[in-house]
Amino acid sequence: MAGIMIADTGCANLASVRFAFDRLGAQARISNDPGVLQNAERLILPGVGAASAGMAALAANGLQDMLRSYARPLLGICLGMQLLYQQSAEAKTKCLGLITGTIEPVSQDAGPVPHMGWNTLDIKKQDPLLGGVKNGAYVYFVHSYAAKTDTQTLASTNYGPPFSAIIRKDNIYGCQFHPERSGPVGAQILRNFLDVNP
Amino acid sequence: MLARRIIPCLDVKDGMVVKGVRFVGHEVVGDSIELARRYADEGADELVFYDITASPEGRRVDAAWVSRVARELDIPFTVAGGIKTVDDAQCILAAGADKISINSPALSNPDLINALVDRFGTQCIVIGIDSYWDGTDWQVKAFTGDPDKTVTTQWKTRDWIVHVQTRGAGEIVLNCMNEDGRRAGYDVPQLRVMRALCTVPLIASGGAGQMRHFAEVFDGADVDGALAASVFHKKTMSIPALKSYLREQNIEVRS
Q1: Is the peptide bond before A161 cis (omega within 30 degrees of 0)?
Q2: For residue A47, what are the domain limits?
Q3: Environment class of B111 (CB within 10 Å of its CB; exposed 0-12, middle 13-18, buried 19+)
Q4: C-alpha to C-alpha distance for A93 and A82, rounded to whole angstroms
Q5: Pair A111, A159: CB distance under 8 Å
Q6: Alpha carbon of B252 to those of A165, B3, B190: distances in Å?
Q7: Which residues on A lie below 8 Å from B168 (Cβ)?
Q8: CATH assignment at residue A147
Q9: Which residues contact B135 (CB under 8 A, 6 or more apart)?
């Protein structure tokens, strides 16, 4: 087994995610090799930037099928979470389809877009990923697209209408915010992810 | 609810935080990484590092130093200064910075904004603007780091703010030069005018001296964040005391 692996999606926050695990005393490695990634005990799919570029990076490295068949805990972060869905309205990008639903633009009526800064988690469902995280805890967001809340939502956040801040379906988790940049709350969520046992 | 952001700004020279008039009379405040960690622990919502020597010396911010900051910090941070190309940005973002802020290079070459947005996404491209009231309107100045090189551009601030958004800028930091360093409060009237022109987050800069100035700019200009340097470096106020004050004023801040 290859421990904690971070899928190299060619995006900018790879180092930040790796450093966040370093701070927890856990070593995470970065790879774009599907053969290496599929043996990970825990897999992180990070991402910032545009959905189409993110999907293109996954396709270029042959990671789509590997992600679809991965059965151990998988965590998508920000764009990485959005890529788990069926489709993103951002340039009508077809995504991985591991999570039912589509990614829609954040409403301009809500306030400035991107939705950028610290906003609160409204916990909808208890889950080991949220152990020790208080309802109303602040986490750091920076995004212009989001998923509607549904039965897969563990926590929602309000910016205009509520959207899914944390989701789970079986072994697959997603955070729309950046746990690696969300202070002690984010560190707690990443620590919990290392312990989840689906 | 989205919290208002308190953003200490650290002017960095050779890894040390300095204060004072740029280019003359720098006084060392402390080690950049130690100070950054202290501000993060005290509740700063975000940090801006401004490399004050990179740009005039024509060199890029030290990626190894950015990487050390990224390793230490668990809050977002922006790097400004000396970023002129997509390669410069790549180097800093890959080292772990969350956002980059560009000012004079965007004025010299506005296409750089589009190139950065296309490559890295709108969310990590911040445009810094130095705005000066000349008696008739607010004008954008460039190369403000060096008083001998500072020039007034052809851009009115309101036009430049609209223009950078059409090119994909994800956030604007407006430094109100007439108030900068006076510690008499942010330029609320100007910020209110510019807020109405921004669909992206707007950060106020220049003029913070007292805690009430933060409340005034959040209430009066509806900005998303307030940036300040000397009040934190000089310990005029602590971040926990400021946040507690703002909470008493019913302003949403992160606890």
Answers
A1: no
A2: 4-195
A3: exposed
A4: 10
A5: yes
A6: 19, 5, 23
A7: none
A8: 3.40.50.880
A9: none
- Which residues have C-beta within 8 Å of that of residue A56, sequence separation ≥ 6? none
Cβ(A27)–Cβ(A40) below 8 Å: no
Quickly state the pLDDT bin for B147 (edges 50, 70, 90).
confident
Could you give the residue ranges of the DSSP H alpha helices within chain A? Answer: 14-23, 34-37, 51-60, 64-69, 79-82, 183-195
Rounded CA-CA distance B198/A170 in Å is: 41
Instruction: Give the nearest partner residue to A144 out of B5, B45, B122, using CB atoms.
Output: B122
pLDDT tens readout for residues A172-198? 999 999 999 999 999 999 999 999 986
Q: Domain count for chain A, please give it.
A: 1
Among candidates A13, A119, A178 on the partner chain, residue whose Cβ is nearest the Cβ of B2: A119
Average pLDDT over all residues of chain A: 94
Query: In chain B, what residues touch A187 (CB-CB under 8 Å)?
Result: 74
Q: Letter for the amino acid at B125?
A: I
Which residue of chain A is at minimal alpha-carbon distance from B93? A12
**What digits encode the pLDDT tens for the residues A39-95?**
999 999 998 878 888 899 899 999 999 999 999 999 999 999 999 999 999 889 999
Reduced to 3 states (helix: H, G, I; strand: E, B; else coil), residue A156 is strand
The alpha carbons of chain B give a radius of gyration, in whole angstroms, of 17
Q: How far is B71 from chain A (nearest CA, A)?
A: 5
Give residue A1's identity as a one-letter amino acid code.
M
Chosen from A8, A9, A14, A19 to mutate, greatest number of chain B CBs within 10 A: A19
Q: Could A181 and B1 be called an inter-chain contact, meaning their C-beta atoms sit closer than 8 Å?
A: no
Q: What is the largest CA-CA distance in chain A?
A: 47
- What are the tens digits of pLDDT across the range B194-223? 999 999 999 999 999 999 999 999 999 999
Determine contact, residues A86/A95, Cβ cutoff 8 Å. Answer: yes
**CB pair distance less than 8 Å for B76 and A140:** yes
